[in-house]
Amino acid sequence: MAALGHRVAVVDRAAETARQTVDEIGSSGGSAMAVRADVSEPGDVTRAIDEVVSRWGPVDILVNNAGFARDNMVLDMPLEDWDAVVATHLRGSFLMLQAAAGAMRSAGWGRIVNISSISALGGGNRVNYVAAKAGLEGLTRAAATDLAPYGITVNAVGPGVVHTAMTEVSAARAGRTLEQHLRLQAESIPRGRVGTPHDIARAVLFFVAEDADFVTGQVLYVSGGPHG
């Protein structure tokens, strides 16, 4: 996004992590700012949007990408782990969307992209994550219908296996080295490799393009094979 000239506000619960990302963008010639916020907290969301607006003006593109996993079998899922995952993935996306879309409606233009997952289609031992992502896809379709008359599109990207920090946690939980885990995952993917953050970013760029105006309420799985 920054490489194409967009100004990027990086929102993270960890201020240092946000600053690191901003530094990377800046070193590549892009423009970015760091905002510390927990997207599951309404007060944090309001403050985050206000910080961005005070510096750059109204938000016209929103990418909801906050998330983490606390996997467990459904009968062993602690309520606090259910609540934490649903709060960030689903509640947080709703709060950010609601906070940003008002200015988009006034402007008559906006782009919102929610990061879902192929896990929205089902899967074992992560009922909280599956439910949150399925709910996020429902939110995407419903919000797309509500906001279409105002020139706002709402879509979702559903990654498959992508090598991120979350993948490293999954490997450790499975008792494998990262290399072993990635190799096993790649063997199950028709494309023959795991995804990269760049693969997901390219899909996001499609949805936020100026001329993607007729594409809304869609879920695009970026997973190296057919899903859906």
Task: Describe it.
The protein starts with 6 loop residues before the first strand and ends in a 6-residue tail after the last strand. The model has no long low-confidence stretch (mean pLDDT 96). α5 (165-173) packs across α6 (178-187). It is α/β, with parallel strands linked by helices. Helix content is 48%, strand content 15%. The protein has seven helices and six strands. It has a four-stranded parallel beta sheet, sandwiched between helices. A two-stranded parallel sheet has the order 1-2.
Helix percentage: 40-55%
User: Overall pLDDT, averaged?
Assistant: 96
Rg from alpha-carbon coordinates:
17 Å
Low-confidence stretches: none
Q: Give me the strand/helix succession.
A: EHEHEHEHEHHHE
Tally the helices.
Answer: 7
**Biggest sheet overview:** 4 strands, parallel
How are the elements arranged and paired?
Layout: E1 7-12, H1 15-27, E2 31-36, H2 42-56, E3 61-64, H3 79-107, E4 110-115, H4 127-147, E5 152-159, H5 165-173, H6 178-187, H7 197-208, E6 219-222
Parallel strand pairs: 1-2, 3-4, 4-5, 5-6
Helix pairs in contact: 2-3, 3-4, 5-6
Concise synopsis of the structure shown:
It is built from seven helices and six strands.
Please describe the structure with a list of short key phrases separated by commas or semicolons.
single chain, 228 residues, alpha/beta, four-stranded parallel β-sheet, two-stranded parallel ribbon, 6 strands
